[in-house]
Specification:
Structural class: alpha/beta
Strand order of the largest sheet: 2-1-3-4-5
Oligomer: single chain
CATH topology of the largest domain: Rossmann fold
Strand content: 15-25%
Order of helices and strands: HHHHEHEHEHEHEH
Number of domains: 2
Bound molecules: CO-5-methoxybenzimidazolylcobamide
Number of helices: 9
Amino acid sequence: MTDFIEIANTLVDRDQDKLIELVNTSLADNVQAVDILNQGLIPGMDIVGDKMEDGEMFIPEVLMAAKIMSECVAILKPLLGEGDSSKGGNLIIGTVKGDLHDIGKNLVSMMMESAGMDIHNIGVDIGPEDFVTHIKEKNAQVVCLSALLTTTMPMMKQTIDAIVEAGLRDQVKIMVGGAPVTQAFADEIGADGYATDAGSAVKLAKTLIN
Ligand code: B1M
């Protein structure tokens, strides 16, 4: 039987070989990829975050855990889809300026891609003007903004302001997400929607497109 706590702790310990083995064994035992992610890997990253906050783990160790997490997510990727292969929407996702966190954003992107959406992942540390440029270039219907830091949340508002100033607000829906973001904050800055996790981001995007 899969021990999700062991998966979480192995990520915290940054034992890459053991973690990949645990993930593969769980899959072979027919454990759902989404459960490995939500009950093992994400709680493991939360422990990493707590240890980082308490000064028990330092940036290089956190980066290593992040890299190992990304490798495991890549293994799970083909199994995280929602089974809908129809192409839909034209979306852009990026992490706002000043913010380098990308694991959650990449997960959202991956799940949208697996759900058949045409999603352009434009990276991290993306300034308001760059979002505007990409919206124009891709003729995007939806733009997804990710932020993991309380200090970069205001950049979401600045990005929305830039979209308004560029005259694009009527043609693009704006979704926001990331650990410190809330529905109240999304409402306050004039976003069209907020999603807590990758699964709900896919559902929200579908409603915004239709
Ligand atoms: Co950073 N970091 N970090 N970090 N880091 C946090 C966010 C923090 C909470 C840790 C802590 O102190 N407990 C804290 C923020 C505190 C705050 O602002 N309130 C923090 C800090 C302080 C910092 C630095 C300032 C540290 C320093 O330098 N002193 C620094 C900032 C660098 C910068 O960005 N400018 C920093 C750096 C880093 C690393 C580079 C070392 C690394 C990132 C590597 C990478 O991403 N490639 C890192 C990491 C890994 C974390 C933690 C430990 C893990 C984040 C993560 O990947 N979680 C994090 C603590 C934590 O979150 N528990 C922390 C797993 C991921 C699957 O979840 O990203 O939340 P998440 O994504 C979810 C949802 O939020 C949602 O769906 C995803 C999937 O379910 N979602 C969306 C995300 N984006 C969405 C977009 C949408 C919809 C949903 O579109 C609409």
